[in-house]
């Protein structure tokens, strides 16, 4: 079946494995890692923050992406036009800019309007993470909305008709046939977008949220080591990505496709 | 003439009044004038090479540039990777707050407050060491400018930074004021700012050291600094 | 043969027809496929619809459950007319989604191209509508589905996904899916096109059973023999209208129009 | 509040000639586009090959491609560019010195295009693989049955057949490519994001410049969208619209 | 009836058979679908393959042009054996891609599910293989395609995309596509399943013409009447083997096995 079910003992896999081990040994012997113990606690916390951001924003973002995609694929104009506009604007401008405009743009308003500091919302307006979550969620929703639009439009029409013919309500057709078929179709892309989202999370460091990337930049600027902290970061992201990719593979393989 | 060419890396992100580009792409600022003076003195043909702050050390170690003039403080940690010339400026660190906040620049005054600093600066180290237990939270900003903006917005109660940077800020923004300098701690606040050099590039370092000493003595340093500062930025 | 003709086709005036199609027109762009088709079937009737390829048989069947929206005309199921309103582009659209849904639960369709749900196993396809639409308990639905699978000879393919089935197996799965909702009216679009004679015989038996239970069937077919054995009414569609209509004997033994004579020539 | 609005409206800073920064922004945009187009095209070539290899290649090729897509997608672009540009050219020049050749100086622009291409290639491989899988198997079989070569099947059947499924994902990646160019700041390439920061930092009119850059990016997107919609309409020919 | 039986079935020893299947086995996972099938057809032979649904007819046909890779066995086309090598998992795989391609250009197939290319119009589908594979000039291919479209009665659908066609129209387009490559051997998988009797008659005429031209045909069908009229050899597939084989007269009038008798019972 799938490649992951084949044995690790195949010769080329052993070669790949050996190369990997070689790189790790080289890095361990020839590079400086004495800083690691000092930062390990903070690194773990940072990974926690990164994961929390990733899961929260991709889950929320996906929830918005589905209606966004559906509205664009099959909605009436008064729904599809705003949905399309939202996706275009968000996808059309860099996330960093959005984050900035949200956090510092609003912040500069607060400076002129000090009364807001008395309101109940101030603890949230004051913290950085709500802005990060908002911006990341919108971004994921917009990109994924676009992917879902294509996926919804690609489901064979006949299968939807079959659902309708059995008296399924539009929602049931959607929930039981259209959505699962579309998601299955979008899974490879979705996996990629989620990894992209993982790599977008570091941007929140610019608005004072301390994720794993912020810790690593801290290490870099403290120690002035060029490659070591970045290699560690790469390793951490690789492991997170590996888990994501495997999870998506598993989902994909749940419905076998011929060919 | 046949002077040796030295590629001097500056941070591509502006850091006024030390280094900033203008709209025609020319780099200006105090550090650029300093560079011109030093290079003229040492008979070096220096060219400005902007590199993002993130890549400036690798650029130096992989020979893409030969020196860094970017307000880089001389610290023990950095000396493990690169060399420094002698210091060429040093300014005190101060704390700024909203007007009439009543906060004093010490642990007692900052108790249970939120304080903002630029990430990976000597100020961050200082705040962590001296106020870490007292304050409610230390917020880390990528640039000093962002910390300043959040002080104005009221998201942080105080910020700590270089006196020069904050001086310019409180003059341009009416929201805030400098409440005073923190107590000195040479172990953290370091020995000032130096030219970053590749390890082992001793010949170049000597040239810079001699030139810095010469322009200090012959008055060139004071001359070009006048346009920027009304005090001696070289420090103690 | 035609053992079913003694059904309820002698309709009394009180009970409304199970299916009533009245003046149905359908345009695809510039192409007028149906040019005023009227047809009514009583409870227990088996109506075979025959006609040349592209004559509009599938379109007509698909109009009955509104998968294809009529350009003009009226469809009633058991006396209830599906309410329609103009769609502003010269056609019609359903006026009452809830009513349409309710009516559709009483109809079941076997599609010409099967349209099995590719992301569900054969069993999943069969229990889907009962569980999701009728609210049948999952276990009951599975028990029933297994009986149906047995009936169409597909028990061993229960957990296989449709794309791994042979053509005839897909068609049988589609038939089982339609039977699972126990509809009042069944719409079959060439339900035996991929089946061998043995299985055609079995489907015939199933349809006869259903007719005996009082269910109504509209069935498009190219197999004249099948139509003759199973139907109590045959409708010949040509050039967008019903060219001829009647009990199978008369249609097959005494076709009136030249067109139908020619159509049947090869079969005799 | 008034000051805030006034800060936004310092239009003279956007003048095309110095001291206005408009010209600098436009030049930055041109550099960004150059890198984006170069990287995207390179990525597309890699993506086609990668997807075909993953679907039809032998086990060794598939594993190597798996390693490629997983690694490259996992490692932050910043790390890749630093490694490839600094460590890479370092190693290259040491090698050149070893064989006695002149040291080479690889431009930041070329390195940037290469890195963006390699990264895009990994993502596009996955998008295209998904799209390939969405083409009904029977259509490929039919093509094989008529004796088409693998390449013909790809060019005539699979590529056009998968296009409707691939366009949204590929469009996303194109838009990402136009913005990923910001990474090249690390190697000193003056693309749009970097010059925007420089303009903002120098003039302190952050919002003005961020809005301006946002509009420029948005314009690129809108123009791209016109093209994308056209490609998509073409790609979806023959597919009935879903309701 | 069987006017074609006087074909070239009396093979001389010199000319190799057009199609030769030798000891064909096919497993799908744990399911052995074909358990050693051997069959050979001379030039101009029309071989009808009949059998129950799921008996492996499509699989066998698909093995002939290697769309399904045999687990064991040998396939030869006009004396040339398709070279195979073990795939390391107990099956076979083609050893020479160029040879396989060359052989495939001499075969044409009409699929059970048509498999028209959805992104090309009917005309585009028909000229695709001639232009891309055979190197026929586009204009010539179009001229020829138009003749074929006329022959299958689809001229008015020339520029329509397949998803807007009726079932029978799709099937006719698929037949025209197969005819366009003028193959030596044609593989038809239920080519008339979606056609009305009139069109079945026409396809029959086409097949008779082709046989007269010396082309060989393997054809899977459920329509016994069709098989009887068009074939000079009938093969009955059951339980993964050829259970019975012979000219149509003997097969239909004097079936030997119980299994075949039962299978044919419903048709008589
Ligand atoms: N890709 C596949 N994977 C697993 N099983 C398969 C696959 N394709 C076919 N089968 C099984 O192999 C058997 C033979 O299939 P095949 O399509 O050859 O039947 P057939 O004789 O053509 O039947 P029909 O008349 O219904 O088309 C069936 O039981 C089918 O379920
Ligand atoms: N969605 C559509 N758009 C345009 N034309 C269509 C569409 N669907 C069907 N047609 C055309 O309408 C006519 C009738 O099609 P329909 O499918 O009803 O025929 P049919 O009688 O079922 O034929 P068959 O026996 O071949 O299945 C055909 O000419 C067909 O090409
Ligand atoms: Mg039809
Ligand atoms: Mg079959």
Task: Describe the model.
The complex is a heteropentamer, with 1 copy of chain A (259 residues), 1 copy of chain B (236 residues), 2 copies of chain C (268 residues) and 1 copy of chain D (243 residues). In chain A, 78% of the residues lie in helices and 0% in strands. Chain A is mainly α and 259 residues long. The longest helix of chain A is centred in the N-terminal third of the chain and has 39 residues, at 36-74. Chain A is flat, with a radius of gyration of 23 Å. Chain C has a 6-stranded mixed sheet with strand order 8-9-10-3-11-12, with helices on both faces. In chain C, strands 2-1-4-5 form a 4-stranded antiparallel sheet, covered by helices on one side. In chain C, strands 6-7 form a two-stranded antiparallel sheet. Chain C is built from 9 helices and 12 strands. The radius of gyration of chain C is 18 Å and the shape is globular. The longest helix of chain C has 16 residues, at 197-212. In chain C, a hairpin with a 5-residue loop joins strand 6 (84-86) and strand 7. With 243 residues, chain D is mainly alpha-helical. Chain D has a domain at 36-188: MetI-like (MetI-like fold), CATH 1.10.3720. Chain D is built from 9 helices and no strands. The model of chain D has no long low-confidence stretch (mean pLDDT 82). One adenosine-5'-triphosphate sits between chains E (28, 31, 33, 51, 53-59, 112) and C (164-169, 194). Chains C, E: This is ABC-type histidine transport system, ATPase component. Chains C, E: Its EC number is 3.6.3.21. Chains C, E: Belongs to the ABC transporter superfamily. Chains C, E: Its main location: membrane.
Blueprint of the fold:
The complex is a heteropentamer, with 1 copy of chain A (259 residues), 1 copy of chain B (236 residues), 2 copies of chain C (268 residues) and 1 copy of chain D (243 residues).
Chain A: H1 11-30, H2 36-74, H3 77-92, H4 95-112, H5 122-126, H6 129-154, H7 157-165, H8 170-200, H9 212-223, H10 228-253
Helix pairs in contact in A: 2-3, 2-6, 2-8, 2-9, 3-6, 4-6, 6-8, 7-8, 8-10, 9-10
Chain C: E1 19-28, E2 31-41, E3 46-51, H1 57-64, E4 72-77, E5 80-81, E6 84-86, E7 92-94, H2 97-104, E8 107-110, H3 122-134, H4 138-151, H5 167-180, E9 185-189, H6 197-212, E10 216-220, H7 224-230, E11 233-238, E12 241-246, H8 248-253, H9 258-265
Parallel strand pairs in C: 3-10, 3-11, 8-9, 9-10
Antiparallel strand pairs in C: 1-2, 1-4, 4-5, 6-7, 11-12
Helix pairs in contact in C: 3-4, 3-5, 4-5
Chain D: H1 2-8, H2 22-56, H3 59-74, H4 77-98, H5 108-134, H6 137-145, H7 150-180, H8 192-203, H9 206-235
Helix pairs in contact in D: 2-3, 2-5, 2-7, 2-8, 3-5, 4-5, 5-7, 6-7, 7-9, 8-9
The structure holds adenosine-5'-triphosphate (2 copies) and magnesium ion (MG) (2 copies).
